Amino acid sequence: MRIQLSDHFTYKRLFRFVLSPILMMVCASFYSIVDGFFVSNYVGKTPFAAVNLIMPVMMGVGSLGYMVGSGGSAIISKTLGEGKQELANQYFSMLVYITAAVGFCLSILGIIFIRPIAVFLGAEGELLENCVIYGRILFAAEVVFILQNAFQTLLVTAEKPELSLKISLSAGLTNIVLDYLFIMVFEWGIAGAAIATACGQLIGGLVPILYFSRKNNSLLQLTQTHFYKKILLKTCTNGSSEMVANLSASIVSMLYNFQLMKFAGENGVAAYGVIMYVNFIFTAIFFGYSIGSAPLIGYHYGANNIDELKNLFKKSLKLLGTTGIILTSLAELFAVPLVNLFASYDVEFFNLTLHGFRIFCLAFIFMGINVWGSALFTALSNGLISAVISFVRTLVFELLTVLILPIFLDVDGIWMSVLVAELCALVMTTLFFVKKRKQYQYY
Hints:
This protein is mostly helical.
């Protein structure tokens, strides 16, 4: 039975609706993970370092898609809740067209400036050349990567989470198969890893364009539209929290690399790369839930259905709290085999990574509620609070902790910084929940 945005959501129905976005985000996380696995084990440590240096840049630029997807989804779902179908389609179409145009420009700029970017990040010699090769190929496909990020949320808003999942699965499997083919069979090295990723992104970005360009049975369709300046501005401000979160993550990753090079050397940088790969899988669950539940909140907020808004708020907090505990337990339990996937060939590297991961993964207990808290206010069209939560959580708190804690705790302070930052963010998010409860009546 098809689940609609207007439905009443029990735990079972809510789980069914968000399952596809969760699996979709897990699949999307495999882009960098699969590249990291093949490059680390079959190409070499220097190309592996190049992937770790350039990937945060690609993710940072790709965050434009998350901004348009989340900010636009809140506006579109609210418009649908108000019963304005045609207007929702026009908003949707305008945002897709503008995203494609801006993404194309960013792709060109990235291809031109990837070398000075890599130099700025500290690359030189062989590492620099690997960064340029990997970065130029990925920037050639950056426009479709940005579109893919936007469609991850917009497909859910169109009541097509299962299609989003199928597209992500196809893109992920394409990446995995081609990584094996280009690296193991053709021996194309780091260029093969980049081409495989770009091919996966082509599927993720172009298939939704083809789907929405034709008549379909979803809530949305690409059509002729107008330039709605206020809607574009509201989309950018409302979705800025998701863009800030991804940009901040890129900036923080660079700072982590600088700090780890200072306190632990090359092995420390490599260990952080491995921890991030495993982290992508676990945090994808939280982001997937946020992507899946945000259109529901936006719809019922637009329809002024306060009872269902309260229902979604209460169930979400319980689910995320429980999931945080479960994921932390699983991370601790399977830490050895997870780390072993990337670091089995070097004992010192393996031990450093395992120790750091066991400390780092404690942050999963608090992370889910913080991620969803930002998405909640985005769905309620309060982009300011959403941006504040994301900005302070992912940039201010993490920058402060990664700079201060190592002074007292050495390398352990770096691994512990995310845990402390997430705990501080939970306090801040809870205060916003309490402060805005009367305005939005979610409890």
